[in-house]
Amino acid sequence: MSTPDCLFCRIVAGEIPATVVRETPTTLAFRDIGPKAPVHVLVIPKEHYADVATLAQDDPGLAGEVLAAAAAVAEDEGLLGDGFRLMFNTGAYGGQEVFHVHAHLLGGAPLGPMLARNLA
Ligand code: 5GP
Ligand code: ZN
């Protein structure tokens, strides 16, 4: 179901432009507007789910399609050899800002430690 005030639903609907790098019947991958690495692509299901937990619980098959799309983009972008990071920010502690589930695909350079600070 499309959510009209959701930024990424509006990108899926073509109402907001995006640099699309891969599209399947159920997923869309497009470049992040504020890239944090030489390659920074967002991979989303076209259908609206707020976060990865909701998506995985309600439609695990679609969650798998998002992962498969991310892997295909990683291959297209030449990231399989040197590696990459795939990340779902979730909720307040995860720093999620857009509440339409999206995988961040990051690569093209060494990405450093997983977290800026060690919280343990
Ligand atoms: P979050 O913090 O929710 O995990 O990530 C949201 C991401 O969406 C951020 O990396 C941000 O740069 C990206 N973003 C926000 N608005 C837009 C937009 O209009 N177009 C694109 N392509 N990316 C966006
Ligand atoms: Zn949405």
Task: Using brief descriptors, characterize the structure shown.
21% strand, binds zinc ion, Histidine triad nucleotide-binding protein, alpha+beta, 4 helices, five-stranded antiparallel sheet, HIT-like, HIT family, subunit A, 120 residues, binds guanosine-5'-monophosphate, globular
Task: Describe the protein's architecture and organization.
Residues 7-116 form the HIT domain. The protein is of the alpha+beta class and 120 residues long. It is 28% helix and 21% strand. It is built from four helices and five strands. It has helices at 7-12, 52-58, 60-76, 91-94, and strands at residues 20-23, 27-31, 39-45, 84-87, 103-107.
Roughly what is the average pLDDT, rounded to an integer?
96
- State the shape: globular
* Poorly predicted runs of 5 or more residues: none
CATH architectural designation: 2-Layer Sandwich
Q: What Rg is obtained from the alpha carbons, in whole angstroms? A: 14 Å
> Mind telling me the CATH class?
Alpha Beta
Distance between the termini: 39 Å
The assigned structural class equals alpha+beta
Would you spell out the secondary-structure blueprint of this structure?
Elements: H1 7-12, E1 20-23, E2 27-31, E3 39-45, H2 52-58, H3 60-76, E4 84-87, H4 91-94, E5 103-107
Antiparallel strand pairs: 1-2, 2-3, 3-5, 4-5
Can you describe this structure in just a few lines?
It holds the Pfam family HIT. It contains four helices and five strands, in the order αβββααβαβ.
